[in-house]
Each structure stands twice: as C-alpha cells, then as structure tokens.
Write a structure and sequence with these properties.
The chain has 219 residues and is mainly beta. The protein is 5% helix and 37% strand. The chain contains 2 helices and 14 strands; from the N terminus they run βαββαβββββββββββ. The two termini are 16 Å apart.
Length: 219
Amino acid sequence: MVKAVKITSAANELLLDPDGDPWRAVEKQPVSLLATPLVSMPSEYIQNKWASLPYGATPEVQVAAAHNGQSIFFRLEWDDPSDDSGINEMADFPDQCGVMLPINDDAVIAEMGMVANPVNMWLWRAGVETPLYVTAEGRGTSSYYADSPLSAKGAWRDGRWRVVIARPFTLTNIPAKLMVPLAPGMKHKCTFAVWQGSNKERAGLKAYQPSWQPLEIEA
C-alpha cells in the first residue's frame, strides 16, 4: 500500500524537493516492475524489432507519498546508471517516470484503460520542467493537456534518480470526467512506470507495475 502521509507544515517547494528534509520521515515502499508485454505494443513492427532486445530495465522503484492539505506528492527513486535528461546530454530518449491512476475502478493497466474506463497518467521527463497530464481510453488514445496542473522536480546523483511529482487536490482546468478525485481521507489506486532512456525505452517500451496499488491519503 502507498500511504500519502499528512505534513501540513511543509510548503509545496519543500515537498517538491526530492532531497528535502520532509521526505526523511516518510517511509519508502518498494514496488517491483516488469517489462510491458510485447503483445501490448501498438504495431507489429515494434513487436518484431524488440522481440530479441532487452527493455524494461528497471526492476524496482521506491515510492513515498505525502500531502500538505493542498497538494499530493509522489516521490519515486530508482537505479539508473546514466542521466539522460536531454538538457545535460541532448539525449534522444530521456529518462522518464509516471504515476498512473484509474479514473474508474475497472480501468485496465496494460491496455492504458478503455472506453468508459479511462486512466490518468502524470508523466515526468528528465529535462522538461512541467510534467505531462495524460488521459487515455486504450492503447494509442493518449491525450495531453497543454495547461498541465502538475509540477515536478528531479535529481540524479550516484546512479539514482529521485523525482517528485505533485498535483493540487483541487483542479479547475480539467473536465470532471477526465479527472481523478483526490482529497485527504480518500482511498484510491495507483501504479508506476519507469523508462530508461539509455536503453532507448519510450512509449510502451518501459518497466511498469501491472497491478493497482492501494493508495490511502491520510486525513
């Protein structure tokens, strides 16, 4: 279970810092990751090209979560031998991580949701200031909102990424049918994904947790 602990004394800036003091007291949960099945890739070309190539190179991500009454914060940490940020190294394939939540309980993770059961992903890309707010109703249906309500900060050091992704509890610019309601005291579900740019991972080529993880937001 992922529990977003209440830290009302911490400002957004402190909780957005993945090395900030508030995170020292928040327990990290190990979440195992697997390579996405090739059968779920959108084209036969990709399936054939990657049939004998390794991908999904991240076996585990450490997850912590917190909130300050105004926003919820997810902190993800994982091993990565190189910083592929696009800014530092002009990488063709940046390192990425994502938090995914079902808009309805019956959403299918491997299919990126389905019609009437969409998913919402908060997608951080190394070297990009604002995370993408993504909704999908199945493979190949992702929609990106230009006015993303998300914020994030990432830091790479000694072969590890530490990233915090945050969303305000109250959203005013996202249609209700494509918004996950989150608030202190609520329970929901979430899952996680990591892309290693040095391994040319992108889109569906990633490491992910195929089961929803219980999310509890402390009242």
